[in-house]
Amino acid sequence: MFKIQTLNNISRIGLERLPAGQYNVASDQTDPDALLVRSADLHKIEIPASVRAIGRAGAGTNNIPVAEMSKRGVPVFNAPGANANAVKELVLAGMLLSSRNIPDALAFVSTLPEHADAHHAMEAEKKRFVGSELSGKTLGVVGLGAIGVRVANAARALGMRVFGFDPHMTVDGAWQLSADVVKAGSLNELYAASDFISFHVPLNDATRGVFKAESLQVARRGVVLLNFARDGIIDAGALKAGLDDGTIGRYVTDFPSKEQAVHPRVIGLPHLGASTAEAEENCAVMVVDQLRDFLENGNVLNS
Ligand code: MLT
């Protein structure tokens, strides 16, 4: 019997793939063979010596001490691509929220007094929320993995010009990317060309602060930055300076700090990129299947 400890809620559809006669799945195991997590920060807990594998029902593995686990010979399985469609859809929403001033318009409507002339007040005030269209604007996509490729292709379908940058693009990604996406030769070329810039890279030493003070010098004034990747991808100091002086017109983020959450140029969401029933299911299924294959057959795929 394999003992699996779940440290977060894992989609039932995924857990049902662990046969009851063979697997004991609980949140309070002693001596588990494997851990199954979503956002639990494993840097902050002692991982039992019994653990032989870790499954992360999501793409990012920055909440897991991967290097330390590698030294212990413990594979970490994740689910790259399983939530890519969910993130792509929220990025599109983020661009629309920003370009059509939707948060400000919603706030206005919610404060309308209850009287017969509400309609008149809305018609009178709506000019404050005049937006602009995405069609014809330029989107820069930093990182052309499973999510970035989808975002780039979807933006093309909306009539946007798209620049992409990724020095480590996979052959699969290259096949899937629309031929109309322009490959930027450098980040600065992408930054200089873009009205919107969306980041789709994991957080690591190479990507931390990939948008920084110097990037502000080349970016278009009023650029909209979208961060559905990780906090830290955009240098905090550069971000604050750009937001305060308007170089950055809007920052749409899944990781707002307290200060950013109340900034008039910030649209902050509580890490909702992958929060759809479908994505949670896809991630759980992908990671559970890998865990089983490892525990039962010793196979290590995608760790
Ligand atoms: C991911 O890394 O898969 C997404 O950010 C969602 C999550 O952390 O669960």
TrEMBL record:
- The source's superkingdom equals Bacteria
Purpose: Catalyzes the reversible oxidation of 3-phospho-D-glycerate to 3-phosphonooxypyruvate, the first step of the phosphorylated L-serine biosynthesis pathway. Also catalyzes the reversible oxidation of 2-hydroxyglutarate to 2-oxoglutarate.
What protein family is recorded? Answer: Belongs to the D-isomer specific 2-hydroxyacid dehydrogenase family.
Where would one find the signal peptide in this protein?
none
Section covered of the full-length record: 1 to 303 of 386
The answer to whether the entry has keyword Chaperone is no
Q: What class of enzyme is it?
A: oxidoreductase
Descriptive protein name? D-3-phosphoglycerate dehydrogenase
Q: What is its EC number?
A: 1.1.1.399, 1.1.1.95
Keyword list, A-Z = NAD, Oxidoreductase
> What does it catalyze?
(2R)-3-phosphoglycerate + NAD(+) = 3-phosphooxypyruvate + NADH + H(+); (R)-2-hydroxyglutarate + NAD(+) = 2-oxoglutarate + NADH + H(+)
Which pathway does the protein contribute to? Amino-acid biosynthesis; L-serine biosynthesis; L-serine from 3-phospho-D-glycerate: step 1/3
Annotated organism of origin: Pseudomarimonas salicorniae
